[in-house]
Design goal:
Elements: E1 2-8, E2 12-13, E3 20-22, E4 28-35, E5 40-48, E6 51-60, E7 64-68, E8 79-83, E9 87-91, E10 101-104, E11 110-116, E12 127-132, E13 137-140, E14 150-152, E15 163-169, E16 178-183, E17 187-192, E18 197-203, E19 208-213, E20 222-227, E21 231-241, E22 245-252, E23 258-264, E24 267-275, E25 279-286, E26 292-294, E27 300-302, E28 306-314, E29 320-325, E30 332-337, E31 341-346
Antiparallel strand pairs: 1-31, 2-4, 3-4, 4-5, 5-6, 7-8, 8-9, 9-10, 11-12, 12-13, 13-14, 15-16, 16-17, 17-18, 19-20, 20-21, 21-22, 23-24, 24-25, 25-28, 26-27, 29-30, 30-31
GO biological process, one term: apoptotic process
Function: Key assembly factor specifically required for the stability of axonemal dynein heavy chains in cytoplasm.
Pfam family, one: WD40
């Protein structure tokens, strides 16, 4: 791993899940965050000749926590964001002063967001999922105003847990789609949107900072979940046992929080984790000789593989909270941390990993 460019925007705070996003089919990326005065900000940068140039900055009324391009077309490249006031907005970055879609999505802060059905990734309708401190996970269709198409919330009398992370997966045809959500108490819940049911749940004993499927647009294959205590879990989703659930392998990366995990777009078995000690770790998942076996009661049970560390680097003394791979150029990524710096990196020799 080597840095191509690094710069600091001292007056802007970049904190949240996915506040940095590459704009598809371009050499530009967006940074989301907030000013010290409590307003939100969107900054658009362009990478040119090894340097990053700020080409647009737009201030918003509320701090922005998260964003995604997952539900937009390649032609429009509209960005969906969640803010501290519970709002879901969709922006045309060519004219970002006024949103093209806006809804009061949650009663409290929108912690996390993901999209599918756009960018040619995933079959079916374009949809956005949001998770909030109010304990709910909601799925939105941008073509439908005001009300969500699905609402996953605790039953009456059940404690509402802070939802920290959401991810789409299993969108390999027009009917199937799943949402995975992680919560502050270590719960991971997998919702089947086709049957509108809870398909699977587990608890990893520490707050779940990030969940991501290795690919959104295939029959569920793997899921990585990261936690507060420096451990991440890789679940093999191809075989679900009725009582044991999914096979998994866990790895202790370091002692600090693993803020995020991002799979390489060009290779679903390679992923990067970002650490609370300012470090990045690059991993590769190795499949077992057989991914399932028959147990004593003649039921198929999954077999977990192993995880190998390919490379690691320390970039800062502060946590690296966000990272996004370029979908167009293998190895190119952008990350930001609590030191209010944004860095563009290039990871080489990935084809030989």
């Amino acid at each position: 791993m080597r840095a191509r460019a690094s710069w600091r925007r001292g007056r802007v705070g970049f904190r949240g899940q996915s506040p940095d996003k590459w704009i598809p089919c371009s050499a530009r990326f967006v940074c989301l965050g907030n000013f010290a005065r409590g307003t939100g900000v969107m900054q658009i940068y362009e990478v040119e000749h090894g340097e990053a140039r700020l080409i647009k900055e737009v201030e918003k009324p509320k701090p922005i926590k998260c964003g995604t391009f997952g539900a937009t077309s390649l032609q429009q490249r509209h960005m969906a964001t969640g803010d501290f006031d519970g709002n879901l907005n969709i922006w045309n970055l060519e004219a970002p002063d006024v949103s093209v879609y806006s809804v009061k999505a949650h009663k409290e802060i929108v912690n996390c967001i993901d999209g599918v059905g756009g960018l040619g990734i995933g079959d079916g309708a374009p949809e956005i999922v949001t998770g909030s401190r109010d304990g709910t996970v909601k799925v939105w269709d941008p073509r439908q105003k005001d009300s969500p198409v699905a609402n996953m919330e605790p039953v009456e009398g059940e404690t509402k847990r802070d939802c920290w992370t959401v991810a789409f997966g299993h969108a390999f045809n027009d009917q199937d789609r799943c949402v995975c959500a992680g919560y502050d108490n270590g719960d991971i819940k997998l919702f089947d949107l086709r049957n509108m049911s809870l398909r699977w749940e587990t608890n990893i004993k520490n707050g779940v900072c990030c969940v991501e499927f290795d690919r959104k647009d295939i029959n569920m294959n793997k899921l990585v979940a990261t936690s507060l205590e420096g451990k991440f879990h890789v679940f093999d989703l191809r075989t679900q046992h009725p009582t044991k659930g999914f096979a998994s392998v866990s790895e202790k990366a370091h002692k600090s929080t693993i803020w995020q995990v991002k799979h390489l777009p060009q290779n679903r078995d390679i992923f990067m984790t970002t650490g609370g000690a300012g470090n990045l770790h690059l991993w590769k998942y190795e499949y077992p000789a057989q991914r399932s076996r028959t147990d004593s009661d003649q039921t198929e049970v999954g077999v977990a593989g192993s995880v190998n560390l390919l490379q690691n680097a320390t970039l800062s003394t502060q946590p690296i909270a966000s990272l996004d791979w370029s979908p167009d150029k293998q190895g190119l990524c952008v990350c930001s941390g609590f030191d209010q710096s944004v860095r563009v990196l290039i990871v080489t020799k990935l084809h030989a990993a």
